[in-house]
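Page 47, continued from p. 46.
Same chain as before, 284 aa.
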Amino acid sequence: MMNGKRKNGFLQIDNYEVIRDCSMEEGQNAFDWFKWNQTEYLFKIGSPEDCFYEYFWNQILKEINVDTVDYEMAEHRGFFGLISPNYNSNNLPKKSIAELLYLYKSFLQKEKEIKKSVDELYNLKDIKQMIDWYFQKEKNEIKESLKDCAIFRFIIQIICGDKDLHARNIEIYSKDQPVLSPIFDLREYGKMHTQQQEYRLKLNYTKEFESPTKTICKFIKTASQKEKELLQEHLEKLQQIKVKKMMAHIAEKLEIKISPFSKMYYQYILKRTIKNVETYTRKI
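Result:
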């Protein structure tokens, strides 16, 4: 992706052209957009520990062949952070799922006199109906592809233990046809515990607290064979990752020495994440 001088694993970015500072709508930690070697990058700040944690999960997603932004750790304008090239450098029209659900909510209230909040609509059942409504002029295979991609994000959220897949973290943009953006914002991956909180993207709306255990079991019970196979396939890919080997590759790439404690910690994080899911997938 990028070559240059590193210090403690962070690329030292200089001779750059700042395009603009980020707005709050672009994320709490998003700092600025800049151009370096003719490529546009987003820079988001974080502690060195947070940056390495998210970089680690970025490498995990690549290992299991998931479409994700290409992260690099860098020091820029005196701050530590992560940079990623602009996946929409041609400025194609795009909307987040949150924006689309807000439009869908207005439609439901006006045309069908159904009052639902965006939070209530943020579940796979209503997202599928929103896709049919918003993309009604598209061919059926395109709409079905978008629905499949939404289900895949739900599955990745489960197997990677993401506790923060909110509606602004999924975007749809239009090339020749509408497609989902690559996965980004991995700071909360590996932090979902079995009983303590809910997944942000739900299978279907419920007012009651729904533990991850219940969500996983409900999904397995109602999923199609194709969806079950997709879940199983990516869980198996996750199980096959050799963390020590991957950490050695990361250390070589970042030109750093990773302590034995850090290696054990990240191995534990991945094992705990897998354990939270694999017990229930044995029922598939």
